[in-house]
Amino acid sequence: MAKVGRNQPCPCGSGQKYKKCCLHADTARGSVASQQAQLEESLAREEGPQASGMPGAYVIAKMFERSEIFATMKKKDPASARLFWTTQRIAGLETSDITTRLERLGVDASAEAFVELAEHRTSAWDLSDVWRERAGQRLDRHDNDFLGFAACELWKRYCPERPSVEMLDDWMQEGYELLEQGSRAEAMERWLRVWDVIASRLEPEMRTLQSASSVFEGSQCLFNWVQDVMLHLAEGASPGWPHEERAVAFYQAVVAQFTDEELNVRVQASTMLAEFYANVGRGEDSERVLLEHIEAYPHRAAGYVCLARNLAYSDGANTPAPELRRALAVLETAAAYPVENGDDYDLQLFLEHTRERLSKIDTGEAEA
User: Fold this and answer.
1) Measured between alpha carbons, how far is 164 from 123 in angstroms, rounded to an integer?
2) Max Cα separation, the chain?
């Protein structure tokens, strides 16, 4: 389309000059398109979701929906903003309203047809690509967005028992938001729900988190998210913590599934499981896991230090001498081995501090 001058008649046929009619709306739409292009370009440069297909298309659409430029557009040019489809707008529609619009675009959106298309897919946005191919007409950007968001929403309604990748991404992000609000237990419930689905789709040959990215790619890199889950589960655990066995199953699955993963991840998984056990009051299980860890990785400091810490502070500052001596023996074993990364865990400093505590008990300086 040729560029329209500010003082030329508006192409919409209103009879007004372009600057007095549609210029502002077209400029806003151009800014939105520019930002979406920038989002696509930045995502394409980063590790993680790509800017074409799923998950990139859905991630970009969600980023735009939450962007500052769209928020500004809704305030300054609500008429233009209403042209854009969002997840919230689609979610507010009745199923019949969604399917009627889809039918006008040449899509068979019946529940039966949808379930058939979804059967061998996990991404709703990928399913919408089939609709685009079948539409048999040129679609504008808003219709394209509608197809994607409609597929995501109808998946929730037609196939809730088999969550789409987009649903997993939403739950994952809800977990992060709940953490920011201080609702750790609720956040972990969301994340364990995500993991249950991901775990059910893993194949035996997926021995690294990178190879498992074919099961899930979204706003958050799977590698980083799994480490976040390991950390927050352990830190937030306490006696009576809900979903305890599901959390244990998560740690055990990470260790068992990703056997070719880099060493630091495997070390973190087993030590975090031990910390989780300790925090929920299962001290014997915690010690068992750490002893198994030391046997498997005798050259790494993590297992020794975690076990010694649990023993040395089993009763806070008033830990009895026998437990302190056990802790000291563990640390001395690590120092004598010697482990290769003791400095990362302040092994020598911990050893000296434990000796001082024992010395005070032996000389009667410690409190009864």
Assistant:
1) 5
2) 99
